[in-house]
Write a structure and sequence with these properties.
The complex is a heterodimer. Chain A contains three helices and four strands; from the N terminus they run βαββααβ. Chain A has a four-stranded antiparallel sheet. By secondary structure, chain A is an alpha+beta fold. By secondary structure, chain B is mainly α. The longest helix of chain B is centred in the middle third of the chain and has 23 residues. The chains are: A alpha+beta, B mainly alpha.
């Protein structure tokens, strides 16, 4: 069974439009690139804590012999990912908090 | 294995056809075996394009390297079309098993084919539907349309768009041009297309709610290829247009329509919206209809070597429909497609329920 993997990044940021631009550019770049495990991202704003945001990047299986978590690990090693993470540091306050999850359930449509 | 000669079909070696079928079937079969919809569609395509019938459910496996050996003498374009048949065999599945999408990529690699649609299918299999649609638009339409724009010097303003799904603009000049088709002789291409629009309540291009000018080009093809305008007719017309395109990227049209009207991988394109109330490709006769549309498209491709979206139909609107068909090499439908129920443009059975209501209210010459 394929198990998706999600990376959650919690950040503080004054201007979420910068994050949105970064994510849109990332998606355009990924859609034009060779296939890897990245599926897409959601950016969520915390209603109780203004200025606090969560990015949830999903990874899936593209090679039956490689797990989604391993795909995410491979993604972390890519130069463009490192560059994106470095740019993220420039636009957020403090250090982003990274957490990692295996997906146990998803409502399909 | 039977041989069923049909017009416009080049002769094929029955042994090669069977070997290719074995490779395609092996590539696209889920672990539980080839699904009926896959077998029916692939059988119909093989039969339409080669005149040779193959029972896809009873084929021995053939690996990627063996298939590559079979196709070694074929050029890249031919091998890429074979890969597209594999991709089509995947795209009718929902979900696409990851192992299938991965296997098709291995076959494509063995055939020396680097194809964007293989990657799109893998994104579907992965569940990355948003990224898949971005990829499909980019690799199938945007770059392709931009390329075409570079090579055609006398563009009519607004006729081509970098994004064929860009929202339509209200354009009185364009609307007037389409409206004037009413005054043309009844047998002309222009009047026939005007009749198709008005007869089923479509807003003319350039008017509010009208189709984008670029996309409206395909409506001339509805009349020329004699396809209906319900979902099944749209699948036929875009299978035809896609294969008529000498650039293999034309396959993007069929891939998009299958995503809209069969599996629902695509939610909307801005003009067409997803509709999967019925599995259209699985409907009786549809595999044969689609396969014939691909065959007819191939004939047009060999004749014109030109994307049908790049034909200046406005220069041809005064000519009788049969004359324009001859000009572009649009061949008649096959008996298999007709027996499969492929209706003509002006037949009620080729219309959606809403279109039919409008047509009947007008009391037009529909059958």
């Amino acid at each position: 069974m394929n198990v998706n993997f999600s990376q959650m990044i919690s950040v503080r940021c004054d201007d979420p439009s910068v994050l949105i631009d970064m994510l849109q550019q990332w998606d355009v770049q990924q859609a034009a690139s060779d296939l890897m495990g990245y599926m897409g991202t959601r950016l969520l704003a915390d209603r109780e804590r203004p200025g606090q945001y969560v990015l949830i990047a999903d990874f899936g299986v593209i090679d039956p012999d490689v797990s989604a978590a391993d795909e995410a690990e491979r993604n972390n090693e890519r130069a463009e990912t490192k560059a994106w993470a470095a740019r993220l540091l420039d636009v957020v306050e403090g250090e982003p908090e990274y957490r990692h999850f295996d997906e146990l359930y998803r409502t399909d449509y | 294995m039977d041989r069923d000669p049909a017009p416009d079909i080049e002769l094929h070696d029955p042994e090669e056809v069977t070997l290719v079928a074995r490779g395609i079937a092996t590539a696209v079969a889920p672990e539980s075996g080839l699904r009926d919809v896959q077998a029916a569609l692939l059988e119909a395509i093989a039969s339409a394009l080669t005149g040779i019938s193959v029972d896809y459910h009873s084929l021995e496996p053939l690996g990627p390297d063996e298939l590559a050996d079979v196709l070694a003498a074929r050029d890249l374009s031919y091998r890429q079309r074979i890969v597209h048949h594999m991709v089509l065999g995947e795209l009718v599945l929902r979900p696409i098993p990851t192992v299938v999408a991965h296997r098709v990529a291995k076959y494509a690699e063995a055939l020396g084919v680097k194809d964007d649609f293989v990657r799109v299918a893998r994104r579907y299999a992965q569940g990355a539907y948003g990224l898949a649609w971005m990829d499909l638009q980019r690799s199938g339409f945007v770059e392709h349309v931009q390329d075409a724009g570079d090579t055609k010097p006398k563009a009519k303003p607004g006729r081509r768009a970098a994004d064929p799904f860009a929202p339509a603009q209200v354009d009185p000049e364009l609307a007037a041009r389409w409206s004037a088709f009413e005054e043309l002789p009844p047998e002309s291409l222009g009047h026939s297309v005007w009749e198709m629009y008005v007869g089923r309540g479509f807003a003319l291009p350039g008017t509010p709610s009208g189709a984008p000018e670029y996309l409206a080009q395909h409506d001339f093809v509805h009349v020329l290829a004699d396809y209906g305008t319900n979902l099944k007719g749209e699948l036929e017309v875009f299978a035809f247009i896609g294969r008529a395109n000498p650039d293999p990227k034309g396959f993007a049209w069929l891939a998009t329509l299958v995503g809209l009207f069969e599996t629902g991988y695509i939610t909307g394109t801005g003009f067409f919206d997803r509709d999967v109330q019925e599995r259209n490709i699985q409907a009786p006769g549809m595999p044969q209809r689609l396969a014939d549309a691909i065959r007819r498209g191939k004939v047009v491709c060999l004749r014109n070597q030109k994307d049908l979206f790049e034909v200046d139909y406005h220069e041809l609107v005064r000519r009788p429909v049969p004359e324009v068909r001859d000009l572009l090499g649009v061949s008649p439908k096959s008996s298999a497609a007709i027996e499969g129920g492929s209706p003509g443009t002006f037949e009620l059975s080729g219309m959606s329920e809403m279109q039919r209501r409008v047509a009947m209210q007008r009391g037009g010459d529909t059958t």
